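Possible regression after last week's pipeline update?

I re-ran a chain I had predicted before the update to compare outputs. Posting the input and the new output here so someone can diff against the archived version. Not blocking, just want to make sure nothing changed silently.
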Amino acid sequence: MADGLYPRLADAFPALAAEIAELLRAEDEPLAEVVADLPYHGPCTCTATCINLLTAPPGSSGSSMIQLEREGMDIIWLSLDPSQTTITDIEVLDGRDLGPNAQRSG
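New output (post-update):
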């Protein structure tokens, strides 16, 4: 568990967490080192169509983001907190199936 209340992103989505860390390391981005310990707060519920995965409480994001690419195409967007020291949510853009952990309950 990341902080005792939430599972770690790396436990809920091991392949995604590894890919994000790999892509960040390829860009020499220090945030690569925080990915393994990010908490997973669940899927965003701001709208019925939102596909973001929260790694911080809703409303924690600042205005900065990192766009991760493969072969020139954006595949993941990472929103950052106002201090730009952690990732607050993840938007997977390439349509991959993230499984039941990404689904909203109810």
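Follow-up from reviewer: compared with the archived run. The chain has two helices and five strands. Marking as no regression found.
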